[in-house]
Design a protein that fits this description.
The chain contains 13 helices and no strands. By secondary structure, it is mainly alpha-helical. The protein has one domain. InterPro entries: L-PG_synthase/AglD. It is a multi-pass membrane protein.
Length: 334
């Protein structure tokens, strides 16, 4: 292993136990908070709202989340092939979905495990595949920023800090997909801190590799995948509110869902847990939705989006590990 090779990012068994405990702790804290709000509101009203939902409706919510995961997974595959990786669609989906298990890590850095699986299966080092994570995250920021901006424009009333959050998301997407800008940020960061030379050097190398994604057609298709995927979950939130008798309109529901996700991400908490739920409940309350509806609606939409994704990740993770190790051994024995 050369000095430039990254340290393994896939969790060893002890790390997986730690991540599972972090996941359980986060879920527990959010659950305690939601239970407290439900108790303060009145259990009867909260349970009555939950009882409105049928299993078929829950299935629709999960199906719309799957649309999001599938669109983004296909986008990941498209980016992988554009970078030059000879991976199949099933490989890409396995990498992408398995990475959801690491969404509970701070800043979601644990999702870099996808790079390790790719390295095992293709031999490509981290420096060559790092642009995948950058362009994928930037595409999400761009899609969410555009959706939030459009939803705010179409809704009757705005959201406090909605425009700044939109601009931040779009600015992050621009920086992450412009090689010169990203390299400049890395240079400035190194000069400002005087530390982390290897990290900033890798960022500069990754920035140069981003030129592979400069095609307007490629980024246009990627933007379409992202817009369809994130709109599907925003639409699910709208349907949920309608079913609970708290219709605030499609545009406003999408705006609240996207804003809450972005705002939660800004807190740095894994998956935006805590911040996203607080923002969602507060914004629904401002729209006149009582706690007896906003609390269960928030809990259900987060379970059927974030926690559903994490559950899929934990189911796919062992398969991705086994397959990557099998292919690594096959390459070594050739």
């Amino acid at each position: 292993m050369s000095s430039l090779d990254p340290k393994p990012v896939a969790p060893v068994p002890g790390h997986r136990t730690r991540d599972a405990l972090v996941l359980a702790g986060l879920f527990g804290l959010v659950l305690v908070g939601l239970i407290g709000l439900a108790a303060a509101t009145g259990w009867e009203e909260t349970m009555a709202q939950i009882a409105r939902l049928t299993w078929a409706q829950v299935g629709i919510l999960l199906a719309l989340s799957l649309v999001n995961y599938l669109m983004r997974g296909l986008r990941w595959h498209m980016f992988s092939r554009r970078l030059g990786l000879n991976t199949t669609v099933m490989q890409s989906l396995r990498h992408f979905l398995g990475g959801f298990a690491m969404s509970v890590t701070p800043g979601r850095v644990g999702e870099l495990v996808r790079m390790r699986w790719i390295r095992r299966e293709t031999g490509w080092p981290f420096e060559r595949t790092a642009p995948l994570m950058l362009v994928d995250r930037a595409s999400d920021l761009a899609a969410m920023g555009v959706l939030l901006g459009a939803a705010l424009a179409l809704s009757a009333s705005g959201i406090a800090f909605g425009v700044p959050v939109t601009l931040l998301a779009l600015a992050g997407a621009v920086v992450a997909t412009r090689p010169a800008l990203l390299a400049g940020v890395a240079t400035w960061g190194h000069r400002a801190t005087g530390r982390f030379h290897r990290l900033f050097a890798r960022i500069r190398r990754a920035a140069r590799a981003l030129s592979a994604f400069s095609s307007p057609t490629l980024m246009g298709v990627a933007a379409l995948f992202g817009l369809v995927g994130w709109f599907a979950e925003g639409y699910a939130f709208h349907l949920l509110l309608v079913w609970m008798g708290s219709d605030i309109g499609l545009a406003k529901a999408v705006a609240i869902f996207i804003f809450s996700g972005l705002a939660g991400g800004l807190t740095g908490a894994p998956g935006g847990v805590g911040g996203a739920e607080a923002a969602m409940i507060a914004l629904l309350s401002l729209e006149g939705v009582g706690l007896e509806a906003s609390v269960p609606a928030t809990a259900i939409i987060r379970i059927t989006t974030l926690w559903f994704a994490i559950g899929i990740g934990f189911a796919v993770f062992p398969l991705a590990e086994r397959q990557s190790l099998r292919q690594k051994h096959a390459m070594e024995n050739r």
